[in-house]
Write a structure and sequence with these properties.
12 helices; 2 domains; two-stranded antiparallel ribbon; glycoprotein; 350 residues; EC 1.11.1.7; Peroxidase, domain 1; disordered C terminus; 4 strands; 3% strand; hydrogen peroxide; Peroxidase, domain 2; single chain; mainly alpha; two-stranded antiparallel sheet; globular
Amino acid sequence: MEMPRVAAALALALSLIFVNMASQCSGQLQFGFYNGKCKDRNGFQRNVEDIVKQKVKARFSTDTTIVAALLRMQFHDCFVNGCDASILLDVPNGEKTAPPNLSVRGYDFIEEIKTEIENTCPGVVSCADIIVMATRDAVVESDMKSRTGWYPVQTGRRDGRVSSAQNVKLPSPSIPIPQAIAAFNSKRLSTIDMVYLLGGGHSVGVAHCGLFQNRLYDFKNTGHPDPTMNTTLLKTLQTLCPQNSGSTNSANLDQDPLKSSSVDKSYYEQIRLGNGILEVDQQLALDSNTRFSVARIAESNDFSFQFGRAMIKLGAVDVKIGKDGEIRKRCAAVNSPNGNSGGNIFNIFG
């Protein structure tokens, strides 16, 4: 019984620190923004975050890969037009159609959560906030053993009305670290934020052969594999992804088989051993701008706290509030002028 009490006390202490810290991060958003704003048809108050949490818990019980899917979705959404759920819009040439987003999934799940909330308190909760809340809850579910994965989320975002594939400019799996730092800095995210966001996001999920096969045989036209890759891992991946095979096989981004489904610091331990799957992951452990941070994280006990801090900052990137956006009735479509879900009437925004 002692450990649960310690974990609960730690969670409370961290939440107070998070609230104080994140209040300085974004004055546009609030903790508990939806408190008292969601009443069902019988007039009873409903807790929006509890609704989302229960939906995530149920989904995770049958599909643990939803954690990686939601982390990727939030990053791909926030890194383009800001955290405005523009990635969810079904419009011609929208963000969904951009090459980096073709493997993003979980759209149906966010719509499922939105439907339940709309049936409870229509017109109150944005799709952008649902993405952020659901991602946090998925991270928590992945880390239930240690119970340290929780972090608070600020809410109050509005949904954007514009979604265009040409706006999707995301860091590639082989981007050099200095360029990656510049990309994150352009979103007001620091180098250490980048280290935590890449590490947390890549601590779960898989990468298909096409994303790392260039490292296995003819790295940068040398005729040899990437020398930074652990030789045991190299042989394993060469078997998984034969040269010129076009294999669609995949490898866990975290090569510790016991921790590849949990958002934790194991990723940093693995890339220090040369077990990074993507080039950017391995370079994170080698580049002079980031390798000391990687080493510190791998040897520390505060990953969950610091990752949560970085996620709060990511969630505050270029958010829309007030008249800058809307509360969509359906996540896949902007509202029509009469307040209904407009379907393709707003295709001009694509």
